[in-house]
Amino acid sequence: TELGIERRFVPESCPRAVRPGDFVRYHYLGAFPDGTRFDSSYDRGSTFNVFVGKGQLIAGMDQALVGMCVNERRFVKIPPKLAYGSEGVPGVIPPNAVLHFDVLLIDLWNSEDEVQVQTYFKPEKCPRTVQVSDFVRYHYNGTFLDGTLFDSSHNRMRTYDTYVGIGWLIPGMDQGLLGMCVGEKRIITIPPFLAYGEDGDGKEIPGQASLVFDVVLLDLHNPKDGIAIENQLVPESCERRSQTGDFLRYHYNGTLLDGTLFDSSYSRNRTYDTYVGKGYVIAGMDEGLLGVCTGEKRRIIIPPHLGYGEEGRGKIPGSAVLVFDIHVVDFHNPLDSVSITVHYKPSNCTVLSKKGDYLKYHYNASLLDGTLLDSTHSLGKTYNIVLGSGQVVLGMDMGLQDMCVGERRTVVIPPHLGYGEDGVEGEVPGSAVLVFDIELLELVSGLPEGYMFVWNGEVSPNLFEEIDQNHDGEVLLEEFSEYIQTQVDTGKGKLAPGFDFEKIVKNMFTNQDRDGNGKVTAEEFKLKDQEAREEHDEL
């Protein structure tokens, strides 16, 4: 004669219990005391959905559901007076029947409910939160209140990407995402009237279902965003900042907003080299690389419309905000020339280096970021060259001009006057600006341009006869070489300094041997001032 309730399963967590006025979704088996089944929601494949305490149920069930938790199971015995009484239900429930119900509560909500947000992880740093009209990328698991999974972006291995607050989402999700930080994790519980309502979505979500979304926010931007720059290290000395048209070499780590690494120049052990402001890189990087100093470290945050857009690229998903931590190694402009800074010049600086002079100097060679490439000091010997003869890169030939012995200077050489785009494998990176700290130690004046040998006095009028030692009317290379060597040894003549003696003499001999037979005759033999310079330059 009394209502009987047996709680056969009660979940450990019960944040909310049924109260009169709540709307519930539950499954049930209905049977008579002898076990004969008269009804089952399972057989229909859908829950029974109803308000509690509003007379939509038999009185016994209205009472039995109060206090239930989602996922709780109750066995309910309802006497006739709280069921269908003396009339019963013709053809289904006989008069004065005691009814047994095995009830499992699936869902529970109230028309006064709002979206519930429970944050269970929030990053320490939260520079920005989701606002209306922002575009977000997030992962989620979608379940019903009883924990049944109906959808998951994780299973698709792709984020859900959408605008917030402009009607692209169900209203409850629009609300639940507001105020989130990138990296934040929260549970958003949405009543059906802020979700898919009475009809559901026609697929996985039934009508009147409360939805629970476990969300982690991965990305966030607004279509009106520009790039953001965070300076991490700016050198105290910054004589020059990058401008449009400059060529930069820089290292970078590229990550998504959630910290996922998608690329790194460090892993390739090679800088990324590019022109700036010319469209060679994505628009956001083009902008973010302007105004940097050599040695500077900065973070550049690039929204997708200035990055790789909706389509993404490679490991970069569509609509992703990109974070680049860059370190500028060097930069130059194709119009740059050699830069010379004199640190010390002797007071008695009268003899200046010029093309053709033989120079001995020490140097330290480094990159713009200070990386040491080479040093003559470590080798314990000077570097020796003939200035302007192509024995060093063009920029060094230019940088050594007009120096006096004892002078110290720094020469900065752009790559187009150095080792170019290719560099020197294993030694000098491609497109690298070079810095040479130089001290000139010795200078031997060279000969006038175009000469490899000059006389220190008057030239003998019988020069051919003097060279032709055996007086056979022909001069061989051996005779010619011996004669020149004697003139140099006795101080009567001077060879261009810094060159190999045998090569110079052979070249001079070849110039005189006009018919190429290996012999010079008196008719062939001419001094330099005896022949038109435009026709022949004796090396």
UniProtKB/TrEMBL annotation:
It is an enzyme of class 5 (isomerase). Residues 512-539 are annotated as: Disordered. It comes from the Eukaryota. InterPro entries: EF-hand-dom_pair (IPR011992), EF_Hand_1_Ca_BS (IPR018247), EF_hand_dom (IPR002048), FKBP-like_isomerase (IPR051989), PPIase_dom_sf (IPR046357), PPIase_FKBP_dom (IPR001179). Pfam families: FKBP_C (PF00254). It is found in: Endoplasmic reticulum. Residues 455-490, 500-535 form the EF-hand domain. Keywords: Calcium, Endoplasmic reticulum, Glycoprotein, Isomerase, Metal-binding, Repeat, Rotamase, Signal. Its EC number is 5.2.1.8. One of its GO terms (cellular component) is endoplasmic reticulum. It catalyses: [protein]-peptidylproline (omega=180) = [protein]-peptidylproline (omega=0). PROSITE patterns: EF_HAND_1 (PS00018), EF_HAND_2 (PS50222), FKBP_PPIASE (PS50059). This is peptidylprolyl isomerase. The lineage of its organism: Eukaryota, Metazoa, Chordata, Craniata, Vertebrata.
